[in-house]
């Protein structure tokens, strides 16, 4: 599995539309979409339009790769939204991919006790993910090239 999964912009458009249709067909009508930045921002925006949801929030989560593999964990970066924003709401978490699933698990656990219901939509879910997302466009165990992060930044790092 050293071949990559390539998602181009055109296919992303189809994928996000189909993901939204899966949510709608299931009868889930979220009040709020919660994007996990940065990749989840694209997905959240697309789902927001397709599902006619205007209430979008963002959480910034960064995955820190510690030297010791057992110390690997995602962390929330400020500003962290207030859980009041989600109280008694039906929330849809949006991200590009659930790989280990730890990022989504962190966000879900953070809001779980403050919401009416929480479900998760992702473009890709990998088989090893510890979170089983309710809405998944495709499953793969390959490394995915997303259209927004395939090209390097235009600034010097
Ligand atoms: P997690 O392991 O917590 O589910 O995923 C953490 C983050 O790693 C994802 O939100 C994504 O930004 C990044 N990531 C995981 N797998 C892939 C992949 O196959 N391709 C890309 N481009 N990023 C990935």
Please sum up the structure shown.
With 157 residues, this protein is an alpha/beta fold. The protein has helices at residues 9-25, 39-50, 102-111; strands at residues 5-6, 32-37, 56-64, 73-77, 90-98, 117-125, 135-139, 144-145. The strands form two sheets. It has a six-stranded mixed β-sheet with strand order 4-3-2-5-6-7. Strands 1-8 form a two-stranded parallel sheet.
What general form does the structure show? globular
Q: Beta-strand level of the residues, as a percent range?
A: 25-35%
In N-to-C order, the SSE pattern is EHEHEEEHEEE
Mean pLDDT rating? 94
Rg to the nearest angstrom?
15 Å
Task: Describe the structure using short key phrases.
6-stranded mixed beta sheet; two-stranded parallel sheet; 3 helices; 157 residues; 30% strand; alpha/beta; binds guanosine-5'-monophosphate
Walk me through what this model shows:
The chain has 157 residues and is an alpha/beta fold. It has a 6-stranded mixed sheet with strand order 4-3-2-5-6-7. It is globular. Helix 1 packs across helix 2. Strand 2, helix 2 and strand 3 form a beta-alpha-beta unit. The protein is built from 3 helices and 8 strands; from the N terminus they run βαβαβββαβββ. The relative contact order is 0.21.
């Amino acid at each position: 599995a050293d071949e990559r999964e390539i998602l181009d912009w055109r296919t992303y458009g189809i994928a996000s539309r189909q993901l939204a249709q899966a949510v709608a067909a299931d009868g889930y009508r979220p009040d709020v979409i919660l994007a996990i930045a940065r990749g989840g921002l694209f997905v959240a925006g697309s789902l927001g339009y397709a599902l006619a949801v205007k209430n979008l929030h963002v959480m910034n989560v960064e995955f820190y790769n510690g030297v010791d593999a057992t110390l690997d964990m995602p962390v929330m970066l400020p500003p962290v939204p207030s859980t009041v924003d989600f109280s008694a709401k039906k929330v849809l978490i949006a991200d590009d991919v659930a790989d280990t699933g730890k990022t989504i698990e962190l966000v879900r656990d953070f809001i779980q006790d403050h919401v009416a219901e929480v479900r998760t939509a992702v473009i890709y879910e990998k088989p090893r993910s510890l979170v089983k997302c309710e809405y998944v466009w495709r499953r793969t165990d390959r490394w995915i090239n997303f259209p927004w992060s395939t090209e390097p930044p235009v600034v010097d790092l």
